[in-house]
Amino acid sequence: MQKQIIINELLKKLEGNHTLESIIEILNENGIKTNKQKAIHLIYNLRKKGFVKTERLSNNKRVYNIFFDNSLGGFNYYEIINENSPIKLAIYEDYKIHGKKKILEEALIYALKEKSIRATLAILALFQKINNWPLLYKLAKKEGLQRHVGALYDVARTIIKTRKMTKRFRNLSLPKKSDKFQYIIENLKSRDFKNIEKIWKVYIPFNKIDLEDYIS
Fold it and tell me: Which strand (E) or helix (H) includes residue 63?
């Protein structure tokens, strides 16, 4: 009980967004002698209890988001993918999404934007369950990824049973004659999916051998 009271008092002092340096400063100002090592240990313990989320700024500096609400659960998009794909993704980020349902379509677009080969391979499995094609089109169009989604869907069909893509999604997403080829991941092309690449004018960043987790 006494330990929980101490934790709550610490949270009241630290609640908000902080760098490691500002955490050290606040604790020292409040009579808690703290150095870098102690501050890192404190952050680690608070994160284990669900009170801390970590973000990285453009300069790679970490910012710690400390709030009581962070202990209420939530989910990470990669967690959604891991629940539905044989290819598992390492979760390095501490962020959680609160107050929303788990939406496969959002997870798919999020992973595509990451431009990771492993994440791109993992999301092929989502086409087994995705059925809200209007939402997927809306999300993909916002990011300019309609053709990426269409090409990956056609790849997925070669290895797994998928939900049927609507004609509207396909017709709206297919490239025009004047459209140039796009990369899903810069400078990566496939040797095995040339026909699909030609249909969508999108380069597939992997080959059939990379799909072993789906075939085995």
Answer: strand 62-66
- The single residue listed with the structure tokens 């030609």 is 198
Hey, what are 199's tokens? 């249909």
Domain ranges, ordered by start, for the chain: 2-72, 77-215
pLDDT tens digit string along 66-117? 876 555 456 688 889 999 999 988 866 555 665 567 799 999 999 999 999 9
The DSSP symbol for 100 reads: S
- Hey, what's the torsion of the CAs at 105, 109, 110, 112, to 10 degrees? 140
> How many Cα atoms sit within 13 Å of 193 on the Cβ side?
27
Report angle CA 166, 143, 93 to the nearest 5 degrees: 110
Angle at 91 between CA 88 and CA 92, to 5 degrees: 145
For residue range 108-158, what is the model confidence (pLDDT) as tens digits? Answer: 999 999 999 999 999 999 999 999 999 999 999 999 999 999 999 999 999
Report CA-CA distances (Å) from 177 to 174, 180, 181, 187, 190. 10, 8, 11, 22, 21
Q: Which CATH class is domain 2-72?
A: mainly alpha
Distance CA 23, CA 31 (A): 13
